[in-house]
Amino acid sequence: MNIPEITHHEDEIVQVKIAMAYPLRWVNSYLLQGPSGYTVIDPGPRTAENEASWNKVMGELGISFGNIESVVLTHHHPDHLGLAGWFQEKAGCFVRMSARAEEEMQRMWGEASTMNDELPRLFRQHGMPEAWTSQLPAHLESFFPQVAPLPETVLLTEGEALEMGGRRWMPIETWGHAPGHISLLHEESGVILCGDAVLPQISPNVSLLPGSDPEPLHSFLSGLRKLQDFRISRAFPGHRNPFEHVEARLAALLQHHEERLARVLELIQAGTATGFELCAALFGTQLGIHQMRFAMCETLAHTQELERRGQVKKVPGDDGVIRYRAIT
Question: Strands, DSSP E only, in the chain?
Fold first, then answer.
């Protein structure tokens, strides 16, 4: 596959595959043409390669920056947010995201962010060895160039219709993968631009992070059930390709996490364990720091949900490390 890759869909949506890090390899951006200009959905992480990719895409489509009316962000993660500020500088366009997504953007990437200190502290509390936690500050710092400059935003609100591509889209807010995550549904056709709320082949990461959503897995499962209430004919996701089996995919993700919760509970019932011990049992330790961060945060999201359900409890140790014990 050559990046960038442009695909014209029958729904008058242009899919643009923009490069990102392994293992996902690309993120989907979307272009919608309206009477007064184009809307860009999730422009991808900022790199010199991706700036060149967008210049190439716009050249092939006959678009100038003056044709860009707005950028809409489903959520604040770098692979979706990244180039929004660059587009805003080049085009003078609006950048729209939800209020909570904007708050999370500042929490992670703003000038006052303390995540580089808080996340290693959280992981140490849950038993992660220093060999791993010492890698986190530099790893987290590496994302700042991918999101600079942060955009000035206009807030999206759930239930307030947004005009894009000459059509009215309804914002639907679902949390879990990212607080304030917005999907955009065209109710007449059932087409949804769903970001990472639901993906066709992989399970979106669900992370417990300091200061963020305290019950992210509960939020994620609630969000999947919320989407089940809508008639969705075709989904345009943030990763992989557009798909139509949305109802089956929502059910499969709900089942996947119930099975994962059962597995974590089984491990804790076998003996008191730290979050890192559980993470290692679930995902192994042959991971790079990027994937290990996701694995640890997802493990803690599951232990938090088991605690919320009254099935496990935290037990502080004399060494300052938290362990989990099953409630019988």
Answer: 5-8, 14-19, 26-34, 37-41, 68-72, 94-98, 154-156, 162-164, 167-173, 182-186, 191-195, 234-237, 273-274, 312-316, 322-326
